[in-house]
Specification:
Elements: E1 5-7, E2 13-15, H1 19-53, H2 55-61, H3 63-68, E3 72-73, E4 78-79, H4 82-113, H5 116-128, H6 134-159, H7 176-199, H8 204-212, H9 217-246, H10 249-254, H11 272-279, H12 287-322
Antiparallel strand pairs: 1-2, 3-4
Helix pairs in contact: 1-12, 2-12, 4-7, 4-9, 5-7, 7-9, 8-9, 9-12, 11-12
Length: 330
Amino acid sequence: MEAGTQAAPGGGRSLDRSPLARLPDRVVRIGLTAISAAILLLLAYFFVKLALEARPVFEKFGVLNFVFENNWDVSKGIYGALPLLVGTLITSALALTIGVPVAVAVALFLTELCPRRARGSLTVLVDMLAAVPSVVYGLWAFYFLIPKLKPVEQWFADTFHFVPFVATENVAGPNYFIAGLILAIMILPIVSAISREVLSTVPADQKEASLALGATRWEMIRTSMLPYARRGIVGGSMLGLGRAIGETIAVTIVIGDNPILGHSIFDQGYTLAAVIANEFSEAASDPLHKAALIGAGLVLFVLTLLVNSIARLLVIRSERQGSKPIAVGH
């Protein structure tokens, strides 16, 4: 009866299959390995290709001077990408600061507090925000949001002038803050969807145990749900950050397109993606200008890789912290 079986390494038995029967497994393994290797090779190709195309501007200004020089003047042939890099980081940081708490709050409401009859329709409405084209967000912000918020921004800048990077005499219409606010709205669906899915996987007995020990609903959410879902929330936030860093059209419309390093979140600025979208068509006749824009794309590419690497480290750290015992407070 055991003629068709053989001893497995763990002490059990496995079917003695012919090499032909095992061929699909080998094909799948080799195919998946090849696809994974191809992705890595594709990323390496992108990096090398961008570096070669941007070589003229790197040779003239140097890599460090190009990245950290605060002067982007096309008319004089001077290209320093620091204002663009800072604008990208500021708008992305504002998007995370504004968007992530709202997205997590929406996910918590839909998961725990929303009535069941309204949960489905509200979930669809939140997810539909991702279907709105970015140019629509940009035009809505330019024609509606900027005029409405400009007096509020001026009041905030005058009232909290002692806060670093807030004070300014005259608030510009398009500025860093408007761009960050639009990006916060744009990343809200993806962060909320991921957070909602992760929060829905929290075991019911874990939540009931917290409530049985005397915890309030908020204490149950804070001590049982959020630590359990921390890894997914961090991962979703980093995906949103990647979306914010690479966004082009909406930011181009509302940031002001000013390649000068602003001193307030209410000043006009520029981003790496926006400058490429705005100036690439006119750079065809100027090799150095074209190389500078490709260099900006290379900086954006490296920045995205750094963000993904940091995100991976944060997810691993959150996983380790989430494995620790959770104490329920009273």
